[in-house]
Design goal:
Number of strands: 13
CATH architecture of the largest domain: 3-Layer(aba) Sandwich
Distance between the termini: 13 Å
Helix content: 40-55%
Bound molecules: uridine-diphosphate-N-acetylglucosamine, uridine-5'-diphosphate
Oligomer: single chain
Order of helices and strands: EHEHEHEHEHEHEHHEHHEHHEHEHEHEHH
Largest sheet: 7 strands, parallel
Number of domains: 2
Radius of gyration: 20 Å
Structural class: alpha/beta
Strand order of the largest sheet: 3-2-1-4-5-6-7
CATH superfamily of the largest domain: Glycogen Phosphorylase B
Length: 361
């Protein structure tokens, strides 16, 4: 029986592998293993996703933890290579664009194990983003490339990839559809906020939060918005460190109308997303989830690897432009912001399509 290993390591991986793992685990034709690299390790960045998405225990936990890009990538490679040599998988499947994704794909190709990439072909054309490098390398190495939208196909063809491209839809949306049926709305009363009356904020891109001037700008923008609309800001660990380092934490936490929390579990976070008046974010995945829900999304970045969320969805790039952000918030409050559509094949069935292709491979 063929042995397929799914690799996940960081927060945005878990909702992408969950729907694929569920189908593969039920198959009698292959055996499926799950390896957690340990890139994210805090309960709120990892364990809570296993609970909320009902993902079974991983078969291995590599415990690589944090470090510089080279250190983290190297640790995943070292540990995953050992694991592969011991367990001899026939196929390796990676997802998304984090360091664990690229590291596992490199290990697989060097051991001559064919690999597949879930969420292939996304490009921001911005090599300052570490994820862009991870995407380019991973897509060059994998033999099966699962894409979430047709623009990804064009990007891959231009890069002369060797792999076979399959337009399967978006597995992140499968997880969103599943969790949407289980929302209990307790988080709204716990945070003492009302549906449709707050801006949900997430920020963690190094360009925004590692740079003092940019983080200061974003903090000022949030202080301004909070005069008209309450702000709910679940803070990523990278951002928390930098808010402290640049002496910005107190400025935010003392302000009425701004609610700071730590990272929020998947089910509660999706509930916050679905009930928000709007979202301000620099996340990749959140641009897609808000498009699915039809919630206005302002993306605090100069570019996006997910253009379909702008052309079809509810996303707009606002970078760190305060006027543009405030003007858009004004449009949203006046109900004049654009309405979007759900992109093709974001229908909750991507996991099944991916799993079937992997089983037949
Ligand atoms: C990583 C991904 C990024 C993704 C993000 C999702 C890379 C290059 N980056 O960025 O693409 O959007 O995850 O959240 O792979 N930390 C903790 N607890 C944890 C994990 C991290 O405190 O469980 C802190 C550590 O101080 C660490 C820092 O957060 O140094 C950054 O973690 P890291 O995984 O290196 O990158 P992210 O910014 O999380
Ligand atoms: N998310 C979450 N809690 C949070 C922030 C994000 O559950 O406090 C979820 C979000 O709904 C999406 C995923 O995490 O499913 C996106 O991950 P993140 O923004 O960390 O990474 P990116 O998508 O930018 O790589």
């Amino acid at each position: 029986m063929k042995k397929i290993v799914l690799v996940a390591g960081a927060r945005p991986n878990f909702m992408k592998v969950a729907p694929v793992l569920k189908v593969l685990d039920r198959s009698h034709e292959i055996s499926c293993l799950l390896v957690h690299t340990g890139q994210h390790y805090d309960a709120k960045m990892s364990e809570v996703f296993f609970q909320d998405l009902e993902i079974r225990e991983p078969d291995a936990y590599l415990g690589v933890g944090s470090g510089s890009h080279a250190q983290q990538t190297a640790r995943v490679m070292e540990e995953f290579e050992k694991w592969c040599l011991q367990h001899k998988p026939d196929r390796v499947v990676v997802a998304g664009d984090v360091n664990s994704t690229m590291a596992a794909a490199i290990v697989a190709v060097k051991l001559n194990i064919p690999s597949a990439h879930i969420e292939s072909g996304l490009r921001s054309f911005d090599r300052e983003m570490p994820e862009e490098i991870n995407r380019i390398v991973t897509d060059q190495l994998c033999e099966i490339l699962f894409i979430t939208s047709e623009d990804a196909r064009e990007n891959l063809i231009k890069e002369n990839v060797q792999g076979e491209i399959h337009f399967v839809g978006n597995p992140m949306i499968d997880s969103l559809v599943t969790i949407s049926e289980k929302l209990d709305h307790k988080i709204l009363s716990e945070l003492n906020i009302n549906s449709q009356n707050y801006l949900l904020v997430t920020l963690h891109r190094p360009r925004n939060v590692d740079n003092q001037e940019n983080l200061q700008k974003l903090v000022d923008i949030l202080l301004d918005i909070s005069k008209n609309l309450p702000v709910v800001f679940p803070v990523h660990p990278r951002t928390e460190k930098n808010l402290e380092k640049f002496d910005l934490s107190e400025k935010l936490s003392r302000k009425q109308g701004i609610l700071l929390t730590g990272p929020i579990g998947y089910r509660d976070f999706i509930c916050l997303e679905k009930n928000a008046k709007a979202v301000l974010t620099d996340s990749g995945g959140i641009q897609e989830e808000t498009t699915y829900f039809g919630i206005p999304c302002l993306t605090a970045r100069p570019n996006t690897e997910r253009p379909v969320t702008i052309t079809m969805g509810t996303n707009e790039l606002v970078n760190l432009d305060k006027d543009m952000i405030l003007d858009n918030i004004d449009l949203i409050l006046k109900e004049k912001y654009k309405k979007g559509k759900i992109p093709p094949r974001w229908d909750g069935k991507a996991g099944e399509r991916i799993a079937q292709i992997l089983i037949d491979w």
